[in-house]
Amino acid sequence: MTTDQQPEHAFQVDLRGLVDLLSHHLYSSPRVYLRELMQNAVDAITARRLLDPAAEARITIRTGVGGGITVADTGVGLTEADVHTFLATIGRSSKRGADGGLDLSAARADFIGQFGIGLLACFVVADEITVVSRSAREPGAPAVEWRGRSDGTYGIRRLPAGSVPEPGTTVTLTPRAEGSEWLEPGRVLQLARHFGSLLRYDVTVVDRDGTESRVNDTPPVWERQYGSPLARREALAGYGKAVFDFAPLDTIDLDIPLVGLKGVAFVLPTPAHPTRRSGNRVHLKGMLLSDQATELVPDWAFFVACVVDTTGLRPTASREALYEDETLAAVRDAIGERIREWLTGLAASDLALLRRFLDVHHLAVKALARYDDKLLQLLLPWLPFETTDGTVSLDEFARSHPVVLVTQTVEEFRQVAPIAAAAGLGVVNGGYVYDRELVHRLPEVRPGSTVADLDPETVSAHLDAVDPAAELAAAPFLARARAVADRFETDVALRSFQPVGVPAMLVDNREARHERRRAELSAGADELWAGILGSLSSSAPRAQLILNHLNPLIRKLADVSRTADAQLAETAIEALYGQALLLSRRPLRPADHALLNRSFMGLLEYATQAAGTAQGEAGA
Ligand SMILES: Nc1ncnc2c1ncn2[C@@H]1O[C@H](COP(=O)(O)OP(=O)(O)OP(=O)(O)O)[C@@H](O)[C@H]1O
To answer: Domain residues for 247?
Structure first.
């Protein structure tokens, strides 16, 4: 068999196309070019210090150099052979261990770079990159100059002996027309500070006039020595204010030796929305990787913003986010654990601060406690709820009420709270989002406590019955009242309860009301709908209009009902029902509006009639 074998070809790379790909799809902004340059300089110094721990470690960025910049380091430098191998080959990196293969763990141990594409980012802002380098590994080798252009061509030349006195590398960028703004002196200093504030080697920006500005402020504030714990707390709080522009409620030290992570979690002083997470700042070996790393902390810990420096977490290729792997998951758990410890510490020894924390973040904590058992366990007893004792923590409330009753709606709470409180019942308003669900989980956290839904029967069962003689005396009035209330599917009962000023109370629950509404609809619906509505129906308790026998008006009405005309008694009962309805704050239906209107007009008519009669009598 003959084969028509063609010679092997090497891929050709269109550098412009590659740079466009990086700038539009990998990096969020052209500004990352400076991070890549500083990072190469840091890595080069790290490599040199592996050879000579006493070697100088200095990075100097000069601005206003013919519209571009230079970045000079005292790092390990490159020989001519290195330049061919590493600079001129995209994807090749000197930071991956001896074989230059894909064992990235070797690179991660010491260096920030690993992918061999960082330098390309400079082509987003520069037309030409010049690298002048002298190797520290081979001090006798001549210094070299590599000039790479954005059209994909490059040239190398050896420099005369003595032209570069010390080992190290200087990179010069000649701006592109569209990228020049990123190389302006003010912008460069700002970017250097943004990315390099925690770099471990000295970084200085020098402008055209020779003015020097220090970029980094190391060691990080959490690693410095302080005279007292208070001085340390103040320094950390001041740092939080400078970085995040808020005075933190408290600061939490973070230290996870496994991934060389240290830093601080700053507790937000104002409410945060769980879906709008605060950005955590993650530095990798000092270099800022991201200021939006939400993935660093568990979802429930949205009330902190962290600044950390780590050696062991992996960056993505864009180096703008953390690589989501098991290590990151473990770090997230460890930070979560640390924040829980802080909360436990507060609960044990600083209740004033815990209260301040919950004052600000209770809503958000409630939202998350539903899904996070540990958080629920820790904070449920301390969370504030609206109750018949005012707004108190659940723990405090449960201590004074053996049975914690919880309403389903805000309106139910408003309706029964004063009466239930007077009858000695402890009721929590379960109408706000999450509250009822959380209160029902109290027995999980506080074994032995009892929580029950508050139904109308519980309230009426706790009201004092009136004595039989009084009930008998009021019988004609009650019979009339029942006849009227029956039109609204409501039962009537006579009880004695506090406060005396409330003549009548309507106890009803939302489900029963829906059930009655369904029955109403199904009565007027066509066959199909009647079938569907009917299949949903179940027997619902009727609402109860409870008249207060202690109230003077009710007593008077019971009295006059025996003699007064039926119409007046009816209007009075409708008015009482209407007023109880308004007090219950439930939504009014058209029939309710009509009733309120009718009873008001009716009473007005009686009042004017009575006035007329009185006038007539006076005139006679
Ligand atoms: N300032 C420097 N001093 C010495 N060597 C350098 C310097 N800058 C770049 N290099 C060499 O050029 C290689 C390629 O650099 P480049 O920035 O493209 O990739 P990298 O830093 O290895 O990886 P990454 O893409 O993750 O940044 C480096 O591995 C290093 O060998």
So the answer is: 221-351
